[in-house]
Amino acid sequence: MRRSWLDRAFWLACALCAAGVGALLAGIAGAILWRGLPVLRPGFLTAVSSKAGASGGVRDEIVGTLILITTALLVSAPLATGVALVHSVYLRSLPARRRLLVALYTANALPSILFGIAGMVVFSRFFGWGKSWLAGGLLLGLMILPTLSVALIERLRSLPRKYREAASALGLTRAQTVWSVLLPQCAGGLLSGALLGLARAAGETAPILFAAAVFSGAGFPSGLRNSPVAALPYHIFVLAQDSFDPAVEGHLWGAACVLVGLVLGLSLLALPARLRAHEEARNA
Fold first, then answer.
1. Which CATH superfamily, name and number, covers 60-283?
2. Which of 9, 99, 177, 250 has its CA at a distance of 20 to 30 angstroms from the CA of residue 118?
3. Would you give the distance in Å from CA 21 to the centre of its chain?
């Protein structure tokens, strides 16, 4: 009886915490939308920023953000797949698996500004790239690598053991099992982890501040070195410093709305894949 009461109290506390977080998130999103609606129009998404952000739109910032997160995905997805397969398939030692998982969680907790400083030292100065979209994409890819790796590891862990047993019974080698059985079954986990990682990367300011982004004068990059891009997080960061100007304030909240919409869209796209993976794991 006492156990049942404690379970209900714990469930109620979790529900209240979830409701509080949801209400806080909805309040923040609602406040941003309310203040950004006056400038949200089709021309705002297709026009170039002008007059130090007081007029125009965020076309170049959207394009630059998409370039950065696409590069991050192309960098992190193969690496995360390799890390997850090493953990779940090729490492036989349980302590080694635990150490790798601890290292991934530790890397995931590193402040993003450390990635930015490291990127400035390594890519901008040591390699001589200056500010470059490639440096920003590489930094964001390395930053979200632990998120993708852990998502894929959890998906591999949730796969029913019968898949591997059936592959062994058919005489498949380990490599054939990976390519023919495990990777196709884990595509949803990689997709959901990638979308969640990109949602985080889209809102990061510190890594691109040091290595990739400028406030104005950057369109579509034409090379690898000294080819910065504009990006929504950095654009919002700079506008926030001049937010006392009413014209700048309106465009600040409009850009924030666009960024929130991008992050929310990526998160919602990842939700069906996550739910399907949990359902398959529960029914396994």
1. MetI-like (1.10.3720.10)
2. 99
3. 20
